[in-house]
Amino acid sequence: MKLVTFVYKNITRVGALLDNEVVDGLGQKKIPLTMLEFLAAGQSALTAMQHLIDSQQVRIPLREVKLLAPVPRPGKFLGIGLNYADHIAETALEKPEYPTFFSKESSCVIADGDAIHLPKVSEKLDYEVELAFVIGKACRHVPVDKAHQVIAGYTLVNDVTVRDWQFRTPTWMIGKSFDTHGPMGPWIVTADEIADPHDLTLKTWVDDDLRQSSNTRHMIFNIYQMIAYLSQAMTLEPGDVISTGTPGGVGVKMKPRGYMRAGQVVKIEIEKIGSLSNPVINEPDGFIAGHSSA
User: Fold this and answer.
1) Which pLDDT tens digits describe the chain residue by residue (294 residues)?
2) How far is CA 60 from CA 8, 13, 162, 288, in A?
3) Please, where in the chain does CATH 2.30.30.230 lie?
4) Bridge partners (DSSP) listed for residue 182
5) What is the CB neighbour count within 10 angstroms for residue 1?
6) Which residues pair with 267 in a beta bridge?
7) Which CATH superfamily is domain 77-282 in?
8) β-strands 182-190, 2-8: how paired?
9) Mapped to the 3 state alphabet, what secondary structure does the chain carry?
């Protein structure tokens, strides 16, 4: 099942994608309005969505809806650094003893087709194709051999990074969290449809130039190990998104540097899940919302 968050007639709701149609969950018993609520409802919501799919009712042509990121504002949006051997080799850094996690602030999340902003404060804008998994059950202290049970599904994340800001602090958080620098989606492929998340090809193109091409089998810390490690420290909750690292081929290590520029389009693709494409534009002028009072 491909779960989507979408807007139709100015109302945001949850549904499922079938070819070029969206099955609309609005107003259906046991199908909540938001993806966070849907995932928290667990099997009852999935069963209700499957019944709706089987009924062949409430179908909307895909062209008439706007797909949002499947989890527009995850409670936790985490990434892991240095998790592919070829990426470690190109950075000349040491293989980490423990998984190196960082936060991406959820305000950076955008959808397929939305524009990535080239910041006013930096030209060092880089791409990173990553497989992400979405938590489906609240959990703590999860054994590695049980970790697959808490995964709702998988999606794509482009871990867009402002390289100079990334390395201003050891946490990496600000350089990973600029507005628009968390493209995610276009959907969540439920876990039952991915037999082995550790054997998926993943690729990145900038315009027509293939920049990254690898396979998730080359992860150093696999998904189940990540869940076991994180859940020793914190409760993982439905809708949390954890991105699993990027392979070699990032722009910062190209000669000359392959940073993204305004006018380009970056596309990432992961086998059995789909593709995510975003244009790059110059950051628009900002403003401060609201007003001051005397």
Assistant:
1) 999 999 999 999 999 999 999 999 999 999 999 999 999 999 999 999 999 999 988 899 999 999 999 999 999 999 999 999 888 888 877 888 999 999 999 999 999 999 999 999 999 999 999 999 999 999 999 999 999 999 999 999 999 999 999 999 989 999 999 999 999 999 999 999 999 999 999 999 999 999 999 999 999 999 999 999 999 999 999 999 999 999 999 999 999 999 999 999 999 999 999 999 999 999 999 876 665 444
2) 9, 13, 38, 37
3) 2-67
4) 109
5) 19
6) 205, 277
7) Fumarylacetoacetase-like, C-terminal domain (3.90.850.10)
8) antiparallel
9) CEEEEEEECCEEEEEEEECCEEEECCCCCCCCCCHHHHHHHCHHHHHHHHHHHHHCCCEEEHHHCEECCCCCCCCCEEEEECCEHHHHHHHCCCCCCCCEEEECCHHHEECCCCCEEECCCCCCEECCEEEEEEECCCECCCCHHHHHHHEEEEEEEECCEEHHHHCCCCCCHHHHCCCCCEEEEEEEEEHHHCCCCCCCEEEEEECCEEEEEEEHHHECCCHHHHHHHHCCCCCECCCCEEECCCCCCCHHHCCCCCCCCCCCEEEEEECCCEEEEEEEEECCCCCCCCCCCC
Hey, CA dihedral for 263, 166, 129, 134, is it positive or negative?
negative
* pLDDT score recorded for residue 86: 82
Looking up tokens 């969505």 gives 49
Please tell me the class of the 2-67 domain: mainly beta
Quick check: 136 and 42 in contact, CB under 8 A? yes
In the structure encoding, which two tokens stand for residue 137, read together?
């059950």
Q: Residue 7 has which token pair? A: 């807007």
The total number of residues written for the chain in this structure: 294
How many angstroms separate the CA atoms of 254 and 267, rounded? Answer: 18
Contact predicate 74/40, CB 8 Å: no
What stretch(es) of the chain map to CATH 3.90.850.10? 77-282
